[in-house]
Design goal:
Helix content is 47%, strand content 16%. It is an alpha/beta fold. The strands form two sheets. Strands 3-6-5-7-4 form a five-stranded mixed beta sheet, covered by helices on one side. It has a two-stranded antiparallel ribbon with strand order 1-2. α5 runs antiparallel to α7 (135-154) and α5 (72-123) crosses α8. Pfam families: MerR_1. Residues 76-103 form a coiled coil. Residues 1-70 form the HTH merR-type domain.
Length: 273
């Protein structure tokens, strides 16, 4: 019978049969070499039923191929195994559902702790000598930085900026995995400065960032530069203020700071390739 007749027998669309032919599940018994018409035998309808039901049950194409020549006893055992697998997955989803709100609440508490830590460190910091900004400008910057954390806590959606900071002298939060940026093949150095005294000496040389790019700053600081947490957040805040948000782009900013081994100040700006 033709593909249309066979599709009518099986209660399916001819396109379904063409797909089964394409993936080698149910091949026609004959294909006319001149017209390309496919022809099927009535007995193939039983194979169609097997394929259709296995597919609806979530078996993969390769799994179905392995079961096609098996008897009904094997097929039923395969269905039993699939049911057990889906029941396990359902229990996992139910467990995730129960833990979801608890984890969301815990994460908000962690963000609140980080916010308070950042606020406290920035309030105790005087950026005038290091960054060359007055107290009024710094006050606005603190509000912007704290506002960033407030928006993360109060909203569930993503911000236009990914904003992260890290200082190896910060012992009040769990230390994240540290990545050796200078040897990371995914990043390239776009600016560096060594032996400087204050960031204000060279900030204007690297403060313009391209939209839609991921950047990372790395500071190695002399021991006389304390309060790395406030230092890092001030550096990030200045970059954010120099590069306003663009609704059509996202920019990732991160900053790492640690003590230098030679007593000198070093800085690198890196961009993801």
């Amino acid at each position: 019978m033709t593909i249309k007749e066979f599709a009518r027998l099986c209660g399916c669309n001819p396109q379904t049969l063409r797909y089964y032919d394409h993936v080698d599940l149910l091949k026609p018994v004959k294909v006319d070499q001149w017209s390309g018409y496919r022809f099927y035998e009535e007995a193939q309808a039983l194979a169609f039923v097997k394929i259709k039901n296995l597919q609806k049950a979530g078996f993969t194409i390769e799994e179905i191929k392995e079961l096609l020549d098996k008897d009904n006893h094997v097929i039923y055992k395969a269905f039993d195994a699939k049911i057990a697998e889906e029941e396990r997955r359902l229990q996992e989803i139910k467990a995730i559902q129960k833990s979801y709100q608890t984890e969301m609440t815990d994460m908000k508490k962690k963000l609140e702790t980080i916010r308070d830590m950042v606020k406290e460190s920035m309030e105790a910091y005087d950026p005038t000598e290091e960054f060359g900004i007055d107290r009024d400008a710094y006050s606005q910057m603190k509000e912007s930085v704290i506002g960033f954390f407030e928006s993360m806590i109060s909203r569930n959606d993503d911000s236009d900026y990914e904003y992260s900071e890290y200082s190896d002298s910060d012992e009040s939060v769990e230390e994240p995995e540290y990545v050796d940026l200078l040897n990371n093949p995914d990043y390239e150095i776009v600016y560096e400065k060594h032996g400087w005294s204050f960031v204000k000496e060279f900030f204007s040389e690297f403060s313009t960032l391209d939209e839609g790019q991921d950047y990372a700053m790395l500071f190695l600081l002399s021991q006389n530069k304390s309060n790395h947490n406030a230092f890092v957040n001030t550096a990030l805040g200045m970059l954010l203020s120099c590069n306003p948000k663009d609704p059509d782009n996202k920019r990732s900013l991160s900053c790492n700071a640690s003590d230098s081994s030679d007593g000198q100040n070093h800085f690198w700006l890196l961009k993801r390739k």
